[in-house]
Amino acid sequence: MRRFLSMVFTAVFALIAGIVTVPVEAQTPDQFVPEAKYYGVVGHFLKTPDFKDNWDPNWRLPVLMKQIKKAGIQRITFPIFSYDGERAGLIRLEKHSPQVAAGLKHRRDLIDQWLTLADQEGLIVSLHVFAKTPRVPRYKEFNRHFTDWIAELIQRHPNIKTIQFHNEPNIKFFWRNSTPEEYVEVYREIAHKFKAVRPDIQMTVGAIASLSWPKGRAWLRRAMDAGLLEFADAVSVHPYTKRKPPEDDPHFNSVPGDDLLDVEEAFINFNNEIQSRAPNGKKLGILLTEFGYSSSESGSHGVGSEKTQADYLSRSILIYIDLNVRHNIPIEAVFWYDLKDDGTDPNHVQHNFGLLSYDLTREKDAYRTYAAIIKAIPDVSKLEPASLNVSLSNTSGIKHVNIKQWLQTDDSTYIVAFWNGHHKAEDRMMNLLLDHPCDVVPAPITYVQLGMQETVPAFKTIEKNGTCQSQVPVALSIRASLIKFRLKSNAATNASVQQ
Q1: Are residues 456 and 443 in the same domain?
Q2: Same-domain pairing of 341 and 282
Q3: How many structural domains comprise the chain?
Q4: 498 assigned to some structural domain
Q5: How far apart are CA 322 and CA 327, in angstroms?
Q6: Domain end position, chosen among 381, 402, 434
């Protein structure tokens, strides 16, 4: 739950260089501060012809780097598998021909080169390590050879900051019918090996499918009972909401009869449980190593259009930021699934999760929207909760008006995010209403319609009963928008106030 002191009310405003900071909620000494580099994407960089015939050459990291940097994306996931076949293998136990040995070395060298590129570009890597399960003959021997090589990689590449153990092991397909207890047994030993060579590297466990799915949470509880959190620095989770809006956790019903108020309470519930189970008072981070929506018209995660995909992306990320800033949920990074489409069939759900088209020739609406969020809020670690008196006019009949507000501490910029929390609704013109003392005015104001346009709107300020209200024309949409401004003295801006 919230870990803030009571609201600080004061009539005194600090005037420094004409900037006025309205009081915000004070932070407790143990307030979580998210990482400066917060925004990530999921990558499938081994799904290329270098590892298997007929796979996608556009998944090569050097091919994608330009568009990763253009969007301002700061993190990638890099899955790496304990392949042992002759064509795609990264490990071999048996003696093999010089040709097979040369192929194995080539594939390892290629991965090394791509990780070097990430180091050079300042791209943080979350390396997702897929060891073999106890159902595989000689799995311990395979895993020893595989993780010896991974240990070498993490020593050579400083931008590998995080190791995630496996992916969605609560689903039988991924953990191959093995148990939560076996997951803990396998990865405990590997975690100790990696920490011995890189004590600073973050060990992330879980990666469970769905935040609140009862079967997934039951799997996680069994793993925690077996000692999972003893070697963990963070827990990763994939909070997909299927086709439902981002505010609705499909497996958590906190407000009966109203599904659009669930997700915040679901995250609080998840965080409370894992923190209560952490040994010796350890503070666990949370990484959202997959979340997303497909733009396909069909399938369990298909939302029907690229526009709706972008709408839901905008709302998801701002909800996660607010969970960080206002609710002290230690979400350290978020990773949109997927960086690019995996196919060209518009009706295939798995083909359409990407920010980019399959052939990379087109940036989807979600790509532009993500880039706009990163540009507008580049460093989440510099945000604090704000307590402005802000509202929207003309909201009659709209059940869920969402308003989030933060203060950017490095330059005293306020950020107000707002949207209509439904899956279908027409845009409605209205005013954003900001009450403030009459000796200050919001200036300059930037209005960011995420993924669409950024403008400097004209607005008016009226005085009533000794208090002023600035009225900024905006459109309330199912796509989130932002207003950014600083409060400056009237003398500094020469602003006029209507009586």
Answers
A1: yes
A2: yes
A3: 2
A4: no
A5: 7
A6: 381
Whole-angstrom Cα distance, residue 412 to residue 406?
Answer: 10
Name the residue range of residue 468's domain. Answer: 15-27+386-493
Residues 216 and 249 in one domain: yes
Same domain, 413 and 306: no
Please give the chain's pLDDT, 499 residues, in tens: 333 333 333 333 333 333 333 333 333 334 455 556 999 999 999 999 999 888 999 999 999 999 999 999 999 999 999 988 877 889 988 777 888 889 999 999 999 999 999 999 999 999 999 999 999 999 999 999 999 999 999 999 999 999 999 999 999 888 877 899 999 999 999 999 999 999 999 999 999 999 999 999 999 999 999 999 999 999 999 999 999 999 999 999 766 656 566 899 999 999 999 999 999 989 999 999 999 999 999 899 999 999 999 999 999 999 999 999 999 999 999 999 999 999 999 999 999 999 999 999 999 999 999 999 999 999 999 999 999 999 999 999 898 899 999 999 999 999 999 999 987 889 999 999 999 999 999 989 999 999 999 999 999 999 988 899 999 999 999 999 999 999 998 765 555 555 4
Torsion of CA 418, 421, 423, 427, to 10 degrees: -50
Q: CB atoms < 10 A from the CB of 359, how many?
A: 11
Is residue 440, in this structure, part of any structural domain at all?
A: yes
- Angle between helix axes 214-225 and 180-197 (nearest 10 degrees) is 60
Please give the C-alpha separations between residue 337 and each of 39, 183, 189, 240, 352, in angstroms, as whole numbers: 12, 24, 29, 10, 10
Length of the chain: 499
**Based on the domain organization, do 294 and 200 belong to the same domain?**
yes
- Residue from 16, 10, 25 nearest 412 by CA: 16
CATH no. for residue 79?
3.20.20.80
* Of 310, 319, 312, 470, nearest in space to 404 by CA: 319
Last residue of a domain, one of 361, 381, 401: 381
Whether 259 and 312 share a structural domain: yes
Q: How far apart are the first and last CA of the chain?
A: 43
CA atoms within 13 A on the CB side of 388: 33
The domain that holds 411 is classified in CATH as 2.60.40.1180
Name the E strands within 274-392: 285-291, 331-336, 383-385, 389-392
